[in-house]
Amino acid sequence: MNVLALSGRARSRALKTAFYVVLAALFLWLTGGWLVDRLRLMTGTEWAEVLSNSLSLSSILILTALGLAITFGVMRVINMAHGDMMMLGAYTAFLCTDRQAIPILVRNLGQLLHRDWQTDFGLGLSLYFAIPAAFFVTAFVGFLLEKCLIRFLYKRPLDSLLATWGVGLIIQQVVKLGFGANLQPMHLPEALQGGWTMTNTTITIPVYRLFIFGVTLFCLLLVYLWFYRTSFGLKIRAVVQNRPMASAMGISTRRVDSLTFAFATGLAGIAGCILAHLYNVKYTMGNDYIVDAFMVVILGGMGQLAGAVGGGAIIGTGNSVIEKLLGNTSMAKVVVLVGVVIFILNRPSGLFASKERTYD
Amino acid sequence: MTEPAVAVPVASMNSHAPAAPSSSRRFTILGLLLLVLFLASLYVPGFTVKSRYWLPLFSKYMALALFALSVDLIWGYTGLLSLGQGLYFGLGAYAVGYSLKLQQAAHAAGKPLLAGPDMAMPDFMDYCRLPGVPAWIAPLINIWLALGLAVLLPLVVATIFGLVTFRLRIKGVFFALITQALVLAVYTLVVNQQPYTGGVVGMTYLAKLELFGHKFVMADMYFLVTTVLVICFVGCAILVHTKFGKILTAIRDNENRVLALGYNTAMYKTFIFAISGALAGLAGALFVSAYGTTGPDSLGIAWSIEVVVWVAAGGRGTLVGAILGAVLVGLANTYFNDKYSEAWPVILGSLFIGVVLFLPEGILGGLRSLGKRLLRILPQAAPALEKPAPTPRKEVNSTPPRSSSTSDETHPEPPQPHEVKAIISDLKGT
């Protein structure tokens, strides 16, 4: 193919592709077959580990990013407190499942007011109850947030970014005052402990990771049905497409906005609840996921729910594979973030770009 | 999603354009006088504050004011919200941090301040059992090289990053989030590479800054930082009042019109982004020399967003506002961290929300609208300042009216046909 004979746009694209191919070849050459060897020598157990890690990480990213894809991609508001909504969901689960949670909360509140408050009362509910509880609690907080703050900030995405960052700071501090700054361990139900061994192999995947995957699939199905098969979903899509016209048709856009926002934050609550049982609960846990979740949404393409799924799967899997190859979580994160930024710079509309031409 | 970045009226300092030339001159002279007074007042703490606790803090605020100035240039004037300014600040901070740390190690070991195979190891490298000072860090022991790199490195990085992003016309929210992702990547890298960067702790117990054989401590340090700040302030003030600055403001208000007029906006944006990066690097360098430690927090996400809110609190789009905001929030931070450390995040969070909701123009903008209201109530008190209030013009394409200078230049003409069309479509829209 004679590159110079091509027209301007095709030529620049060909040159760009060639540049990246050369870059990749150079990288492989510099690492000197180490990468290939590393991949070839990976055992079945290691592959199973990568698989289970990527399953759970992708699921959590997808759940988080799904909420963001709704608020950011569809409603065009940037909710930097989304990660803290995850954290709220995690603490709701902590309150529901751990008998020590309420005594800790009461004691800390008492300390704050210089009183000596004690209680032995604690809820010991199971995870199956905690997940819906986390959803409803965070959805309610999201509803309040929309009513009190976000609704003044539609069409001002950068301002919404700053204001919700402030909300996140406040929520984190309040939770820190209530529950203390310590890590809180969580307990899994009996049925979800242990591993599931693939028949005829030595490959074992923890049952809980499969459970996470199942919950994510269930939520995806729910969102799909809600968006495309209910009259409320129809209203949401109408409001997104043409707000004044939808309003003229008698749809209460205010109500649609607040309920959609509440639902989106509720999804973050579920993600947080799941994440809490995977690791521990801490008041800063949302910070680790918020930037990744935004990257997922941008990588997937704005305004596309499928984009959140694709983006989440790619970033989650990429993260786990690179982590295994490098043996270092932080470096994997660095590589993935830089990779995603380079990809977005090359294709700003994301993977599943919605076909529209807008005058900005 | 590409909303024009900030759709709030932004009034710039000294840019009143009243109709009568005599009152215009009076305004300018008054404004200049106030400005000189303000800049002079920045030096006051250097003379009055004697406390060994407060004086370094004031030096720190001045360095942070320079950082806020850099954010104001790109956000307040050009409308680009970068959440990655901490990257450039951190580059400057670490460049000078390495230098001062190497110097401190050399002082402790009684060795000369020269790069070489047998130079003294800083403590954090020693803990991590590095065989020797890495070759890319060693030359930084020369403070002039470090200071040069602290400005040049951010300049180069910002230029490259700006060229790529702005030519692709990435702006608004995407720009903010991408810069944030990059700063997170660099933060994670720095925390992870403990042998080379000191990890989470960073570098502590740094040597004092020594230039021309003179050690800068306490008041000297304060005067040095403040002088650099004032020089940069004057430079920025000149920059934003030239034609170049007007084009930057125009890009903020409506980039497509500027593009249609034939300006290469990407180049303008890259240029100001690079300048802003260099200023942030300089601010980082000064911060480290004044404060005596550097850590990865100086290139964290939180830090980069916080500086934005200093600018917003002071008044975005006004250089004085950036300095004012940085100093006031810094003072509040120190005060509350002393007395009620648990309350500070809540106060800071409320500041974020309050500024966005109630004071979009910051303290300066609030003061100005308060002053205008007072003038309206007491028209006799200051007849010279009174102007006929121009009728608010229906903006084309429903862009909200932006700076006070444009609304002052309204002509009482009948609306043009295309404006009528725009008004009609606007009415349809609502």
Provide a descriptive summary of the structure in words.
- The complex is a heterodimer of chains A (360) and B (430).
- Chain A has 360 residues and is mainly α.
- Chain A has one domain (38-346).
- Helices cover 71% and strands 3% of the residues of chain A.
- Chain A has helices at 8-31, 34-40, 44-74, 82-97, 101-112, 127-148, 157-179, 207-229, 231-241, 243-248, 253-278, 287-300, 305-326, 329-346, and strands spanning 184-185, 195-197, 204-206, 280-281.
- A two-stranded antiparallel ribbon of chain A has the order 1-4. Chain A has a two-stranded antiparallel ribbon with strand order 2-3.
- In chain A, helix 3 (44-74) packs parallel to helix 8.
- The longest helix of chain A has 31 residues, at 44-74.
- In chain A, 43% of the residues are buried.
- In chain B, strands 1-2 form a two-stranded antiparallel ribbon.
- Chain B contains 18 helices and 2 strands.
- Chain B has a domain at 41-300.
- The model of chain B is unreliable at 1-21 and 386-412 (pLDDT under 50).
- In chain B, strand 1 (210-211) and strand 2 form a beta hairpin.
- The two termini of chain B are 20 Å apart.
- In chain B, 66% of the residues lie in helices and 1% in strands.
- Chain B is mainly alpha-helical.
- The interface between A and B is large, with 47 and 48 residues.
